[in-house]
Amino acid sequence: MGRTADDGMGGFGGAGAPHARRRLLLASSSMGLLPLMRRFLGVRRGTAVGFIPNASLIEPYGFASRMTAPWWRAHGLDVRIVDLTGPRARVAHLLRGCDLIYVCGGNSFHLMRCLRDAGAVPLIRGLVASGVPYVGESAGAVVAAPDIGYIAPMDVRHDPATTLHAPRKRDASTSGLDLTRLHVVPHVGGRLLGAAARDILRMHAGETGYAPLRNDEALVLEDGRMRRVTTGSFAARLL
């Protein structure tokens, strides 16, 4: 699984309940995450995972992120797809019935717009505060921050789709889920998005609260502490 280190950084919690009730696993890639979910979050066969795919739906590489769902089903997890564009009542029902929330990678701005439009932001905050673990991959890790404007060098800010009656107004908000005060910078050193990650870190050099992550790394946030762990995934290192 790789080396585990304690970064000794408390104070990562966002708005809401005490830190001790929050459990977050934030990563650049889903590759190698399942063993970490078992180890740190108690995931086992039959665990109901609310799988939010929307960030991946507008990116050409999104199919690879969504393949996590059938892979985990093959390993015994009860993966339930939560499409944020569906009826609000169904989105809420699915999220309330899950043991763990998983938000896959893709475009962070599109993801937050979908979360807001679905009314899922306060619901997810409440579930995480009550102890439901949150696992975020790439964009899913980015939106855990209080604000996602910093990720602009990596993610294109797509305009909303036009409706049948009129063009939709551009969403100017860059607020995130505010589950943690950390701002995850994924894909550090990666072949595909490493240059953008480097630019972001350069822009925020000297500022606190920015957490760079390689494609084979993850952050475990629990009990007011942060641990940096490696997934041990050789495939993730090639991305």
By secondary-structure content and strand pairing, the structural class works out as alpha/beta
Rg, Å, rounded: 17 Å
The major β-sheet equals: 8 strands, mixed
Arithmetic mean of pLDDT: 87
Order of helices and strands: EEHEHHEHEHHEHEHEEEH
Cα end-to-end separation = 18 Å
The total of beta strands comes to: 10
Give the overall shape.
Answer: globular
Domain count? 1
Name of the CATH homologous superfamily: Class I glutamine amidotransferase (GATase) domain
Number of helices: 9
Q: Which architecture name does CATH use?
A: 3-Layer(aba) Sandwich
State the name of the first-level CATH class. Answer: Alpha Beta
As for the CATH topology, it is Rossmann fold
Percent of residues in helical segments?
A: 25-40%
Low-confidence stretches: 1-11, 16-20
- How are the strands of the biggest sheet laid out side by side? 1-10-9-2-6-5-3-4
In what range is the share of β-strand residues?
15-25%
Give the key terms.
single chain; alpha/beta; Rossmann fold; two-stranded parallel ribbon; 239 residues; eight-stranded mixed β-sheet
Q: Explain this structure to me?
A:
There is one protein chain. The protein has one domain (4-153, 174-230): Rossmann fold (3-Layer(aba) Sandwich). It is built from nine helices and ten strands. It has an eight-stranded mixed sheet. A two-stranded parallel ribbon has the order 7-8. It is of the alpha/beta class and 239 residues long. 28% of the residues lie in helices and 18% in strands. Helix 4 runs parallel beside helix 6 (120-129). Pfam families: Peptidase_S51. This is Peptidase. GO terms for molecular function: serine-type peptidase activity. InterPro entries: Class_I_gatase-like, Peptidase_S51. Belongs to the peptidase S51 family.
